[in-house]
Design goal:
76% of the residues lie in helices and 0% in strands. It contains 15 helices and no strands. The protein has two domains: 159 residues, Tetracycline Repressor, domain 2; 141 residues.
Length: 310
């Protein structure tokens, strides 16, 4: 039965509604990659400072999510996948989402800078600005490369974690950034292949709409090819080692094979098996990133016992 409060416009937002505004599933990736960047850095932080840094990075990621939902409320209402979000479902007003996003942005940036260093706070501010203004407000609705551009915002957390620990940005941080940046397009384009109607209904110029599914499949392949050298290259830096390299090689072979199969499928094949291959590739892409960054942590743990590294 429908909530009568929702129908008459008197619904009071619950704590869970505001948590949902922060995109907790996306935040889990932000937190994990930022934590890895912080923990594998050569300079350690006091556990309390490290925890505070991750907390403020998470709040910054949540602020981006809330501001994105505020701006995209109109198109979220048109897509099945997003129509139940707090704003289009009427559980939270646009003003409440905007206020929460702005407040958390300011708190997270200032507190991260105070807890660690100015560089990490500045990088978090750039991340929020890039995701909300450059991606959501400006480019998401006008270019089929929206996912590529948005991927840059999602790639900053490990760099922020590294900067929080070291006070600078090294080649390792740049490679972790590039891993997430190059991973994002094939991950989301695979989703777009079996969620095409949602993006069409919302008028978002996803690559599947502007260039077609065949071109999208080719893009998935070439971005996956471009991703592999960064994943393997990271293994030769201070955060890599033989254990990481074995994991990276196995993951990238499997990821490349999945992208190859997607590239060589047509819509008749895909519709016949209800996009089983595309869905499997999308699910594996999540596992790929978490395991790859987990391998960085494992390598760091082995080094602490004098067992890792080259």
């Amino acid at each position: 039965m429908a909530d009568t409060n929702l129908l008459d416009g008197t619904h009071e937002p619950q704590f869970g509604d505001f948590v949902e505004l922060l995109k907790p599933r996306v935040m889990s990736l932000v937190v994990f990659t930022a934590m890895v960047g912080l923990l594998v850095a050569p300079t350690g932080l006091h556990p309390v400072v490290a925890f505070s840094a991750i907390l403020f990075i998470a709040l910054g990621g949540g602020a981006s999510g809330a501001l994105n939902m505020w701006w995209d409320a109109d198109i979220d209402a048109k897509m099945r996948r997003t129509s139940s979000r707090p704003i289009p479902s009427g559980r939270v007003t646009e003003g409440e989402a905007l206020g929460l996003g702005i407040a958390l942005s300011g708190i997270s940036v200032v507190m991260l800078g105070l807890a660690t260093n100015v560089l990490s706070g500045a990088l978090l501010a750039v991340t929020i600005f890039f995701y909300v203004v450059i991606y959501s407000v400006w480019l998401k609705r006008i270019t089929p490369q929206n996912i590529v551009i948005g991927g840059a915002a999602g790639a900053f957390p490990p760099m922020i974690g590294w900067a929080a620990a070291t006070g600078h940005v090294g080649i390792e941080a740049i490679l972790m950034f590039m891993l997430v940046f190059m991973w994002t397009p094939p991950h989301f384009w695979a989703l777009a292949l079996f969620m095409k109607s949602d993006y069409a209904d919302a008028g978002v110029p996803m690559l599947t709409e502007t260039h077609g599914r065949k071109a999208t499949r080719a893009h998935i392949w070439w971005y996956t090819v471009a991703l592999a050298p960064f994943a393997i290259g990271a293994g030769f830096t201070t955060i890599g080692g033989p254990t990481y390299m074995v994991v990276a090689v196995i993951l990238n072979i499997k990821f490349l094979l999945g992208a190859w199969h997607i590239w060589h499928r047509d819509e008749v094949m895909a519709e016949a098996d209800k996009y089983k291959t595309e869905k499997a590739f999308f699910r594996f892409s999540l596992l790929y990133l978490f395991v790859l960054f987990g391998a960085f942590l494992l390598e760091a743990a082995l080094k602490s016992f004098g067992l890792g590294g080259w």
